Inverse folding.
């Protein structure tokens, strides 16, 4: 029992214990990220993380790398500036469904449109967890939350499809019951030189579960597993057959111009040099 | 060797930014500030810098904060509606002590109001626009030369005090064309790299309040958050002392250095009965009005406030101590007037000449006000 988790060296141990509830999917997703990071042979010290506000946005605070915990919904705009200022950094964004798709929806589609080289892990639990169980833009129609006591009237966004349509070069969706696939997609996202979006459908037993008669993480996982349909199969199903299903797989995986590469190309053309890095520390420019 | 240029205010601002070492601009088009973005879109790639047109002003403010932590001096430029949208992330920059420069070329307000007309109606928003307690630094240029100079000064102050600095220009200064002189020896403050020691604290509660900041990627592995944080940068949201110490330090590092930050110019105030107090474009008319009054043997002087924030209490008190009346001239219905009245109101009659509509008050209009007060 006392065997140490092999990913512990990547964590800020002085910040533990974390704030996540029992049964939360965030732990499994942190594990999946670190496994993918090792598989992709990334230099962990070169990773900079950016996040917004919400439970998932607390993840970078527990990882031992430069981390920018920003304002609600705005992580992608901060990440755009950070990556543009230093394109050598591997910038990873952790966000949630409320953060990325509600208050940050505009930043999400524009970052995807630019195809800027960021790896975004969007943890979609279909609810606002941090504020206590309000419906989110991915809550299923008819599901319950503290702000939808009579059932959610709105239709949910399909985030992975939305981001693919907005122009991202990589977009995928998995759930916390398909960790192996998730690891491979995060690895692909980290290696992709462009905007990579990995949506992870996850369980929030504390709020979504309690409000929707799924009281345990295992009950939620079982429902998630039963409702999962691979994209290849979903392509042959009707809209009615797909109601309530979680379609998993890759929605974009293409080669495309990358934003900061293009900026660098213009810099080389106009000034004969690459975009400067760490220029704030110099008076000789 | 100094170089001379005949250029527009907004172009001078862009030129000043590049001279100050700005190598990243993120912004969104808005009248009457757009030429700052247009100029930097063209010029930044020529000096190894980057320009990004963001999706809105919220994103613009976020991007320059990210750019600053990426190790690059960063700026945005906007006007009233845009500065309203930026307030959330401006507050974040104060809380995380991120050096950035925000240029506001003020136009008729509130709402979209008068895009092509001048005003100074964002002065209190510069002071109090984001929620919470903080002490902003703001500069107000009165000429195209000053728009160039103050943009450089804004970058230097941002680095010295690790905080956002606002350049509160107005449409008159943004769009007018004047000759500027660019010196060879421009003083530029470079960011200081902290020493890589085991006990480095990015938000250390030190005497003068400002700790050197590393860039992301330097190997410091720091955590930056808008939540109340301890000296390591780790969230500590429920300890009253942590919050008190952090916010007091963020405020005090500016307040305790007011004598170094505040800049006020004046003329003819020693024996003046009436003193005109102004900032930004109206200073041009205030100077002319004071000169004409003097020529007419009226004892009138003027004060030009270069740095509305932090407000130069002590300097203003000292300069105006012999005057019976002070006339605040500004292009709003009274914003800095409240500050002047707060500082001088006990011993001096403080009057407001607040003009809205978009036109600069003329020297004659100011003289009329002086005569009403009784400048004979």
């Amino acid at each position: 029992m006392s065997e140490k988790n092999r990913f512990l060296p990547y964590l800020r141990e002085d910040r533990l214990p974390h704030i996540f509830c029992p049964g939360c999917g965030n732990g499994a997703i942190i594990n999946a990220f670190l496994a993918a990071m090792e598989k992709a042979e990334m230099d962990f010290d070169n990773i900079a993380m950016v996040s917004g506000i919400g439970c998932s946005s607390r993840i970078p605070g527990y990882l031992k790398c430069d981390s920018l915990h920003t304002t609600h919904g705005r992580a992608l705009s901060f990440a755009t500036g950070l990556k543009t200022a230093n394109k050598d950094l591997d910038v990873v964004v952790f966000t949630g469904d409320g953060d990325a798709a509600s208050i940050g929806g505009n930043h999400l589609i524009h970052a995807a449109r630019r195809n800027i080289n960021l790896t975004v892990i969007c943890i979609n639990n279909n609810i606002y967890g941090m504020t206590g169980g309000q419906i989110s833009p991915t809550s299923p129609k008819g599901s319950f939350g503290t702000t939808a006591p009579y059932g959610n009237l709105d239709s949910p966004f399909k985030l992975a499809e939305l981001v693919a349509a907005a122009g991202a070069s990589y977009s995928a969706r998995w759930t916390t019951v398909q960790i192996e696939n998730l690891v491979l997609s995060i690895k692909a996202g980290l290696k992709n030189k462009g905007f990579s979006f990995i949506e992870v459908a996850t369980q929030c037993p504390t709020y979504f579960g309690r409000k929707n008669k799924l009281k345990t993480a295992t009950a939620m996982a079982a429902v998630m597993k039963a409702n999962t349909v691979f994209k290849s199969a979903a392509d042959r199903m009707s809209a009615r057959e797909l109601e309530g299903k979680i379609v998993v797989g890759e929605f974009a995986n293409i080669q495309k111009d990358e934003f900061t590469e293009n900026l660098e190309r213009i810099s080389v053309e106009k000034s004969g040099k690459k975009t400067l890095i760490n220029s704030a520390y110099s008076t000789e420019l | 060797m100094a170089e001379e240029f005949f250029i527009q205010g907004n172009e001078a601002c862009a030129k000043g930014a590049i001279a100050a070492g700005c190598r990243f601009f993120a912004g969104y088009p808005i009248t009457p500030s757009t030429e700052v973005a247009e100029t930097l879109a063209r010029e930044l790639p020529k000096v190894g810098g980057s320009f990004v047109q963001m999706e809105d002003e919220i994103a613009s403010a976020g991007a320059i904060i990210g750019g600053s932590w990426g190790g690059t001096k960063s700026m945005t430029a906007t006007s009233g509606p845009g500065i309203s949208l930026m307030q959330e992330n401006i507050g974040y920059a104060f809380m995380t002590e991120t050096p950035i420069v925000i240029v506001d070329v003020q136009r008729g307000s509130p709402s979209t109001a008068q895009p092509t007309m001048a005003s100074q109606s964002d002065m209190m928003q510069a002071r109090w626009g984001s929620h919470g307690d903080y002490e902003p630094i703001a500069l107000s240029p009165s000429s195209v030369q000053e728009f160039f100079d103050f943009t450089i000064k804004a970058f230097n102050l941002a680095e010295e005090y690790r905080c956002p600095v606002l350049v509160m220009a107005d449409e008159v200064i943004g769009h007018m064309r004047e000759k500027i002189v660019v010196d060879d020896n421009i003083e530029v403050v470079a960011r200081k790299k902290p020493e890589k020691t085991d006990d480095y604290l990015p938000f250390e509660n030190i005497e003068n309040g400002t700790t050197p900041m590393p860039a992301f990627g330097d190997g410091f592995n720091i955590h930056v958050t808008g939540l109340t944080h301890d000296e390591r940068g780790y969230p500590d949201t429920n300890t009253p002392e942590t919050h008190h110490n952090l916010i007091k330090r963020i405020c005090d590092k500016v307040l305790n250095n007011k004598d170094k930050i505040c800049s006020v110019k004046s003329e003819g105030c020693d024996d003046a009965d009436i003193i005109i107090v102004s900032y930004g474009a109206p200073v041009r008319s205030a100077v002319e009005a004071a000169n004409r009054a003097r020529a007419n043997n009226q004892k009138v002087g003027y004060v030009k406030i270069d740095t509305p924030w932090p407000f130069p209490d002590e300097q203003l008190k000292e300069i105006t101590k012999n005057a019976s009346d002070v006339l605040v001239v500004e292009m709003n219905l009274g914003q800095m007037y409240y500050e002047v009245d707060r500082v001088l109101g006990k011993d001096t009659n403080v009057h407001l000449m607040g003009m809205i509509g978009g036109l600069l008050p003329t020297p004659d209009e100011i003289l009329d006000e002086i005569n009403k007060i009784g400048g004979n």
